[in-house]
Amino acid sequence: MDKRKILVQLDADAQASVFDRVVAVDAGADEVFSYGGVRPEHVQGLVHGAIFTRGPKDLKSTAIFIGGSDVAAGEKLLDEVKKHMIPQFGLRVSVLMDANGANTTAAAAVRAAGKHVALKDVAALVLGGTGPVGQRVARLLAREGADVRVGSRQQAKAAGVCSQIAAKISGARLQPVGTGTAAELAGALEGRVLVIAAGAAGAVLLPKNARAACKTLRVALDLNAVPPLGIEGVDVMDKGKERDGLVCYGAVGVGDTKMKVHKAAVARLFESNDQILDAEEVYQIALAL
Question: Hey, which of 192, 241, 267, 271 has its CA 20 to 30 A from 186?
Answer without folding.
Answer: 241
